[in-house]
Design goal:
Chain lengths: ~130, ~130
Amino acid sequence: MSVVEAGGIQFDLDLSKPLYEQVLQQIRGSIARGGIALGEKIPSVRELAQTLKINPNTVMRAYQELERDGLTETRRGQGTFITSNNEVVQDIRNNLALEATKEFLEKMHSIGFTRIDIQRFLNEGDE
Amino acid sequence: MSVVEAGGIQFDLDLSKPLYEQVLQQIRGSIARGGIALGEKIPSVRELAQTLKINPNTVMRAYQELERDGLTETRRGQGTFITSNNEVVQDIRNNLALEATKEFLEKMHSIGFTRIDIQRFLNEGDE
DNA sequence: GAAGTGTATTATATCACTTAATACACTCAT
DNA sequence: ATGAGTGTATTAAGTGATATAATACACTTC
């Protein structure tokens, strides 16, 4: 449903969250899961804006945050490239996992689930 | 930090999310984890607003959502009471857990974690 | 020099959230 | 009956984040 591909990355935007945040997360996810090679070039700001039918400023905001995190390197006049530093990628991947886990456990504890309950819950989900 | 108690419920508001959502979640959490007895009365709209130093309309919005979910019953002129129907409470608790789990697994998968990786991650967090 | 990059700026519009003030309907204790 | 305390509705206003639009500048490559 409204999935768009650009530069080897899948984009699926909706209205549940800010657009710049979704663009950021989906590129970051693609890098973290190895869906895009290190050193690779990603679409230009204008190109991605046109493909996703959103404003260049909105794409820019996502790109700037990626660079701040060290996930991309931007070269004026050339474009934006995924970092070649695999260590940075793994660190960020690890951090994302830690944060997701922490948030999950906090939520479960706040509604009265113990560690054992949670284990059971996760195993039930298997098929 | 800035934890306030009202009607046997702990409130801790910040600016990370809408106030009405935090009030809703914290009351709901208290019910789900059994921190407050079924049938119990919770603070009046005006009283809670004053205690939390927020607008009565904001409290109202949280209370209305609680009632829509069947977690509370409101009696005009009397107040707002936690439902006495334990089944409803357990259903909602279960739903919250399911949603939290689904969101967590999706996030982890999106950054390339397999089921086994996730198991390992959760166990590492133990002490 | 032209085309394509990233980047900055200014203005505008929209929407969610929050507050404020006020009023009404109801219940209960007195 | 009255008054105090309930939930509820309405209208108005302000604020901030988000997104768009239009434009301009600096840089790289061909």
